[in-house]
Design brief:
Blueprint lengths: L2 H17 L6 E4 L4 E5 L2 E4 L14 H23 L3 H34 L6 E3 L5 H29 L1
Antiparallel strand pairs: 1-2, 1-4, 2-3
Amino acid sequence: MSQRLQSIFFFLSALLFALLFFLPLAEYFGELNILRFSVYGVESMMPNGEVPFKTAFSLPVLILTITVILLSGYLAMGLFRAVKLPQFVKLYKLSRVNIIVIVAWIAVVFAYYIRVIGKPIGADPVFKVGAFLPLAALLLSVAAAMGLKKDIKKVRSTDRIR
């Protein structure tokens, strides 16, 4: 079975989301202010620049990021210990939840936050590396879930032979 490869995929997915704590998602260059958006919130890059958003503004992004890290980490660790079919089925269901949370993160950030942040200063976003990491994490999670589904089919077919 390829469960070790899948656990590496889930671990890399968690690692990519953990990198978001160190990398900005987007920057906005306005006439009077420069804003940087990260999972922590929006900060001004100007010495006396005013941030038009409170610190709790990006709390949903932070919560979703931590949720994805915990889910992906749990899946990576759980696949090393799984040996029976019910354990694989449980992890497969959890991997689908993980994919849904990643898609929700992408939808929330790109559909709402990226558009709203630039309006007060009249600037368009300049995407940074952090904006593309969740897409890579989504691809890794989908690949791992597909491999996990194949493993479940293999285990079921070997159970029928016995």
